[in-house]
Q: What sequence folds into this?
């Protein structure tokens, strides 16, 4: 039900190449981009006819420099409802805090992947989303690197850690599966830190972030003039990591042809660059991650069975947060402790009603989403502890879930008519029904989808289309 009409974006950026890239990306989703090159022009533009038509602003921090937060605050003062996304090269938590307090909707560290940028823009401009409570924030805190830092006592989670710890001590391949946000990268780093190759070369290859037409060259390397544009010889990642560990993040995103070639190379322990006549023997520890069960992808013909055989020497499955809700209080207190150590923030407590609210939600974005929500809540909290009121969107989604009355149907209904006696729009009624179902089933999205007679993916799509939530 998403609107398709053209929307106007103001991009505050003085870098032509980046401006062209962002304009092209946003145009694919119906955005027209107005580029301004300085703060004064941006402020003046708000008062123009075009300025009144703006739906969002993207600001490159480089333009106003140290005055970026001041510019954000001034823009928000003039147009409070206008979402502002800030691009920056700094990963400083203090800058993130200051930008969010000034009014930034999201904070993106360059170089930002195109899909991350577009997701942030979609989240920021979804209709009726109160304060973007669930906007996925870029990670601001350094990751822990050992198994002791993996918080949780739920049996499926501890079983996964035990398998990972055992596999870490060997040299064989490991496949880590689990939904986005379950902590696969953190587990990878813990395994590498505990492995015999901890001091050897190590690299995570994010398959999603490498263009499909260049990933073969990145992995295997190429000889000079082996293809148009190959002006120099390039040594590939796999050859450079000889004796170390390579991690294929989201390995399922490799093309079928590259999956087959990688399978053969890993089986033979031999790498042949593009255009080369000879191969190079390599000794690699291989770890791969996937957001989806690869066995299912093989069954549907969407993944190479030979490559799965190579990768799955040991298999670790990280459970989603909805299957380990007993860990949410411990995870929450752990994250709040780490958030409190960041510049510009302080350690906060959390009330039992707030913990109960967090535990009732389904967390489709898993642990990463929980951390992002806590970070945002901590930025704006004035008290000594987070309360349920610090999570307005969760409260809206779940409603009054405390007490036996919430499990009944007395007094529950959906308004069908407007005050003037006309029927309400269908999408508003549908949104109310979904909100009612989420509250009634205490945020258990699998149950909500089952009772509504739709799939989970359809449910989450509807949540986004109807502006009910922006889950990661």
A:
């Amino acid at each position: 039900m998403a609107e398709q009409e053209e929307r106007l974006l103001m991009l505050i950026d003085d870098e032509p190449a980046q401006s062209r890239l962002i304009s092209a990306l946003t145009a694919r989703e119906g955005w027209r981009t107005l580029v301004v090159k300085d703060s004064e022009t941006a402020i003046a533009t708000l008062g123009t006819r075009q300025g009144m038509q703006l739906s969002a602003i993207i600001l490159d921090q480089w333009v106003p420099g140290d005055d970026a937060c001041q510019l954000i605050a001034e823009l928000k003062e003039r147009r409070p409802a206008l979402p502002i996304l800030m691009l920056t090269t700094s990963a400083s938590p203090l800058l993130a805090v200051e930008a969010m307090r000034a009014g930034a909707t999201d904070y993106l560290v360059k170089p930002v992947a195109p899909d991350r940028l577009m997701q942030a823009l979609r989240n920021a401009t979804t209709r009726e989303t109160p304060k973007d409570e669930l906007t996925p924030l870029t990670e601001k805190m350094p990751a822990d690197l050992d198994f002791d830092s993996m918080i949780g006592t739920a049996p499926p989670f501890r079983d996964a850690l035990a398998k990972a710890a055992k596999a870490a001590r060997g040299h064989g391949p490991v496949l880590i599966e689990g939904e986005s946000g379950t902590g696969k990268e953190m587990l990878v780093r813990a395994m590498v830190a505990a492995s015999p190759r901890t001091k050897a070369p190590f690299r995570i290859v994010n398959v999603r972030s490498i263009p499909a037409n260049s990933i073969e060259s990145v992995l295997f390397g190429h000889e000079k003039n082996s293809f148009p544009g190959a002006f120099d010889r390039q040594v590939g990642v796999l050859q450079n990591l000889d004796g170390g560990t390579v991690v294929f993040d989201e390995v399922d995103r490799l093309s079928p042809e590259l999956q087959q070639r990688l399978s053969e190379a890993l089986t033979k322990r031999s790498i042949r660059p593009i255009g080369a006549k000879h191969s190079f023997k390599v000794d690699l520890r291989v770890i791969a991650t996937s957001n989806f069960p690869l066995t299912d992808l093989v069954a549907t013909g969407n993944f190479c069975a030979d490559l799965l055989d190579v990768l799955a020497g040991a298999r670790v499955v990280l459970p989603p947060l909805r299957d380990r809700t007993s860990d949410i209080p411990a995870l929450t207190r752990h994250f709040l402790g780490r958030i409190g150590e960041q510049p510009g923030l302080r350690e906060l407590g959390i009330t039992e009603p707030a913990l109960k609210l967090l535990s009732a939600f389904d967390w489709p974005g898993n642990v990463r989403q929980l951390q992002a929500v806590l970070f945002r809540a901590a930025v704006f909290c004035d008290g000594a502890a987070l309360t349920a009121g610090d999570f307005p969107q969760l409260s809206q989604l779940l409603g009054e879930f405390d007490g036996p009355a919430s499990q009944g149907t007395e007094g529950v209904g959906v308004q069908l008519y407007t005050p003037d006696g006309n029927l309400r729009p269908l999408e508003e009624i549908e949104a109310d029904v979904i909100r009612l179902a989420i509250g009634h089933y205490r945020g258990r999205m699998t149950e909500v989808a089952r009772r509504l007679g739709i799939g989970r993916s359809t449910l989450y799509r509807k949540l986004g289309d109807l502006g009910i939530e922006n889950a990661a």
Observations:
- The domain at 323-465 is CATH 1.10.8.60 (Helicase, Ruva Protein; domain 3).
- The chain has three domains: 7-125, 155-317, 323-465.
